[in-house]
Amino acid sequence: MTGYLRAFALILALLMSACSTGGNDTATSPTHAPTVAAQAPATSTDSVPTAGPTEARATPTFVPTEPSVEESPAVTTAPRTATATPAAKAPTNSQDARFDSIAREVSRLRGLPIRSEIREDYLTRDQLRERLEKDLAEEYKPADVEADERVLAAFGLAPENIDLRKLYVDLYSGQISGLYDPETQRMYVISSGRKLNALGELTYAHEVTHALQDQHFDLEKLAEQAEKRDDDASLALQSLVEGDASVLQYGDYLRTNPDLRDDILQAIQEEQQDAQLPANVPPIIQETLTFPYEQGAIFVTTVRGGIQGSWKNVDAVYRDPPTSTEQILHPEKYLQARDEPTKVQVPDLAPTLGAGWKKLEENMFGEFQSRVLLEGQLDLGDAKNAAAGWDGDEFALYTRGEQEVVAWQTVWDSTRDAEEFAAALRYYDESRFGGEFSEQEGVYILSAKDQIAAVRQEADRVHYVLAPSQELATNVLGVLTK
């Protein structure tokens, strides 16, 4: 995997199954009550580059955390193994018995037998932060951080002075309330007091779902296959995995255990001041963080056939996972007329740019993140409509010192869809740069802030260039439109 999905995917991989402090199954602020079950979409529903490294294999689950108290610096006891296994032994205490009871109930509700031992332990929030810092230091290399920061800034998705590594650590260490690590097949509940309160129970139910997914469908193998394809496919897979666990957690499990609701709401209210998002989190990062939980739950509910439909329908999807966020946003494009993305490749621009220029990054946005980009300057409805006809894309960032050239090629379902996106993209740049495009023989040019933006639409394709001079912009656009 390439691009700013690196850090985000690394953390998701670090933690492929975690729960956040949002009141819903999301990583937003804890001011909202958890929803009982996702509602099926009317027709369409949400990809921007995901932010984060991608090597580790854990999944963060985002659910409300318990009120914070003083946290110990280290784990004080060894993790235990859940006894709800084929060769179960008697639990050693009441808390162990509770873990086992939750695991058995989740297995029954989800319709996936427990095939091997389920091991769990607690982490304090300090320990979680230490783990994130260590893993990011190992996997998220300085060159990757620089590339991601420059891409986000070049597209207007984040300020130029953003510190991504610190932002990710601050964001995730405060939002995650549980995680499952497929590499070690171990689940963690974030707790300072090593107690399983109502939020911890709901988190554990989510993590058990991930453990069962892993035992039956091999999450690591699926993740590797998606990463070989592209970043948008990785986010689509993550949406299946997290949507599955979120529907089980907030739908089936909470519906079966309604007494948890009052305790959860009370805990959310108590911890609101302790689990706020860090200041100034760019929307691209925040929305990409919540997408797998919110939109994934809608996708899974639709595939399932409603909130009380068949989980076997969802099981079948793991044998043929969605390959784009377009399919997650529009389940009919997965379930009915399967709409596979068109492969797009930006040609090598080094010969055109000349000496000193190097390619720092190449990646794709997908429909969801294209929409989030446009949301930076357009109304949500207009951004959704402009991104809805997405069929494929790729961008490349070339640098020479502080100078940058961006080339982005997109393909759309129809000429009309391409026209709508081209118009929205021009409006986006006019709003962020404070200038106006002028049309010259089918090419729209904007000059502002020592940058030249060029947009050209040809049938179902839109070509976009951002360069420090009109000569470079024109030359690059000529290569893209050959």
Question: How does this structure look, described?
Answer:
- By secondary structure, the chain is α+β, with helices and mostly antiparallel strands.
- It folds into two domains: about 5-335, no CATH class; about 350-480, PknH-like extracellular domain (Protein Transport Mog1p, Chain A, 3-Layer(aba) Sandwich).
- The chain has 18 helices and 13 strands.
- The protein has a seven-stranded antiparallel sheet, sandwiched between helices.
- Strand 11 (about 445-450) and strand 12 (about 450-460) form a beta hairpin.
- Residues about 15-85 and about 85-90 have low confidence and may be disordered.
Which properties best describe this structure?
single chain, 482 residues, alpha+beta, Protein Transport Mog1p, Chain A, 2 domains, seven-stranded antiparallel beta sheet, 18 helices, 13 strands, 47% helix
Q: State the strand order across the main sheet.
A: 7-8-9-13-12-11-10
Q: Whole-Å distance between the termini?
A: 28 Å
- Helix coverage percent of residues? 40-55%
- Tell me the number of helical segments per DSSP (H or I, 4 or more residues long): 18
Number of domains: 2
Shape: elongated
Question: The biggest beta sheet, please?
Answer: 7 strands, antiparallel
Strand content: 15-25%
The low-confidence parts are 14-83, 85-91
Quick structural gist:
With 482 residues, this protein is of the alpha+beta class. It has 18 helices and 13 strands.
Secondary-structure map:
Elements: H1 5-14, E1 19-20, E2 59-61, E3 80-82, H2 94-110, E4 118-123, H3 125-139, H4 142-154, H5 164-175, E5 176-181, E6 186-190, H6 198-217, H7 219-229, H8 231-256, H9 260-271, H10 283-304, H11 311-318, H12 325-329, H13 332-335, H14 350-353, E7 358-363, H15 366-375, H16 380-387, E8 390-400, E9 403-412, H17 415-433, E10 438-440, E11 443-448, E12 451-458, E13 461-467, H18 470-480
Parallel strand pairs: 4-6
Antiparallel strand pairs: 1-5, 2-5, 3-4, 5-6, 7-8, 8-9, 9-13, 10-11, 11-12, 12-13
Helix pairs in contact: 1-3, 2-6, 3-5, 6-7, 6-8, 7-8, 8-10, 10-15, 15-16, 16-17
